[in-house]
Specification:
By secondary structure, the protein is α/β, with parallel strands linked by helices. It is built from nine helices and twelve strands.
Length: 336
């Protein structure tokens, strides 16, 4: 009996130690689970690809209510850091209208690019000419800078691959961004516009190479191909560089070879327009400047929407797809 009591006592002695170890293991296991569940995940989800998403973002910038349409491509949750393209509407335009004129969505879905279609104050931009936002003292360069901050903070955007393109007033704004926001913008593409001549062009000193591509119709009735004073059809006026003065400006800034490679592109559409391409290569950090002169082209976006009649804005060339040409150009460059 004594032996049995000793065994019973031995058992009673060891049970608390076993219980202690089991509780310790349970506590460690619980803490491990908590650690896993609380850990911040800084990588995109590996779940099934999300469908594309389009939404309007509203911000207050410098005391002004501002907005833009954001387009996230199909599969953006699994794309990692994505390039971003600002697509900027013309004077009296809207983000929705610009989507119709220059629809980058198929490219965005295919190559995983984020699109931002911003809205100007009273449908215009302060591009340096006497537009309404210019007269109101609106700092649109600050608006784009803060949109960059917002997008980098809230979405998986590659800060070295942010680009700007636009038509008309939006094209002039793209030129200004290239001149004054080169710490954010990696390359620009300008359609039916050049550079404001009296303040923006003389002060354009990006401090780094900035690849640029320009499209311009020789019979543009609103933005004269040869530059000078803008007087046509209710435009904001102002004095602008000619197409080739704008090209020469960027060739010098980037240190490109001033003698271009000239190519007459195939006339695939037989629509009364033809296109001559000039490529100025050999710039610093591999930068490049490209001119697309649309012979007999109007105030339009190649293969874009003919948003007004030819009698008002001229012909839309079908010989190239400007969206594809622009993206092929952009994706070769990132901000150094």
């Amino acid at each position: 009996m004594k032996k049995l009591n000793l065994q019973a006592n031995s058992i009673s002695i060891f049970l608390p130690d076993i219980t202690f170890h089991m509780r310790t293991l349970l506590l460690l296991f619980t803490l491990t689970l908590l650690g896993v569940s609380c850990k911040k995940d800084d990588t995109p989800s590996t779940s099934a690809d999300k469908p594309s998403e389009q939404k309007t973002i509203n911000l207050t910038i410098d005391g002004n209510a501002r907005s833009f349409i954001l387009y996230l491509p199909t599969g953006y949750n699994n794309a990692g850091k994505m390039p971003l393209i600002f697509v900027i509407h013309g004077g009296s335009g809207t983000p929705e209208g610009m989507i119709n004129i220059a629809n980058f969505k198929p490219i965005a879905d295919r190559d995983k690019v984020v699109l931002v279609y911003p809205a100007g104050i009273q449908k215009n931009w302060n591009d340096g000419r006497p537009t309404t936002p210019n007269q109101l003292g609106i700092n649109d360069v600050s608006f784009f800078n803060q949109m960059c901050d917002y997008m980098i903070t809230n979405y998986f955007v590659d800060r070295t691959k942010i680009y700007a393109t636009g038509i008309s007033n939006g094209g002039f704004m793209s030129s200004r961004l290239g001149c004054e926001l080169s710490n954010r913008i990696a390359a620009i593409a300008v359609d039916a516009a050049t550079i404001e001549a009296t303040t923006i062009a003389p002060g354009c000193n990006p401090g780094r190479p900035l690849p640029a591509i320009y499209f311009h119709g020789t019979t543009d009735p609103l933005v004269p191909f040869t530059g000078g004073q803008m007087t046509a059809g209710g435009t904001a006026g102002g004095t602008i560089l000619s197409h080739f003065q704008a090209i020469d400006k960027w060739v010098v800034i980037n240190g490109c070879n001033p003698t271009p490679i000239v190519t007459d592109l195939p006339d695939i559409a037989n629509d009364g327009t033809t296109i001559k391409q000039r490529v100025y290569s050999g710039g610093a950090n591999g930068s490049e400047v490209v001119s697309y002169v649309v012979l007999n082209g109007g105030h339009t976006w190649p293969q874009g929407l003919q948003y007004l009649s030819e009698s008002i804005i001229g012909k839309t060339s079908q010989d190239i797809n400007a969206c594809e040409v622009i993206w092929s150009f952009f994706k070769r460059f990132k901000r150094q």
